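I would love for you to help me understand the pair of lines that follows before we discuss the fold together.
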Amino acid sequence: MSDYATHRRKALDAFRHLALDEVDSTNQQCLIRAREGDPGHLWLTANRQTGGRGRRGRLWASEPGNLYSSLLLIDPAPLADLASLPLAVAVAVHDAISAVLPPGSPPLEIKWPNDVLIGRAKTSGILLEAERLLDGRHALVIGIGVNIRFKPSETPYPTASLQEHGASVTPDEFFSHLFIAMADALALWDQGRGVADVMRRWRHVACGIGEKITVNLPDRSISGVFSGIDDKGILLLDRGSLGITPVAAGDVFFEPNGPRKE
């Protein structure tokens, strides 16, 4: 076995997986285990969630047939380097979906920071939650839901499922791809030391660079041209005479039929 293959096998072997039936939330169950002293590198998957949620407390539809998963990491990197982790996670989800979509599918892209889109319709949800534990460790949970058989309908944006685009895959089969892709992405990210390589991978499959967008912030909305990301994954919004505005967190919406900036 080559050195690369040996290293990759050790990276994969570092992760554990526990499959559950019905839970309130795989993220919540990971946090419970972290508080109980779990060392991390633990995947939890569930057939169904009764209390799944997305960003800003939104409910996430969790009927059987889709993927509901969370990965628990303990002290994954210095706190200052964690901002780029969501983009590394998105690269992993993109790679896993790419592995199961048939040839000729619509473009598979990442919308900043970590939404994976098929033909500009959202097919996955990623939610990172962190907690400082009583023993001083930092627990970080990466929650990932993927629309495999079903997709939510009451959303402010278009949605897609893998099945409607010809991917015949079960949640377990898809998770096997995600398990490998995530180990590879985290190894590339390397506790924040590999951020440049992650940003290069992210830009290669980015959606909407050069297009007019609106970014919804907690207190307001701002519009401009999406001019890319910086070396830490911060969105750069070109607001014309107002200059470039860096955005660390927000919801991005593309303008319908908006002009592209060449």
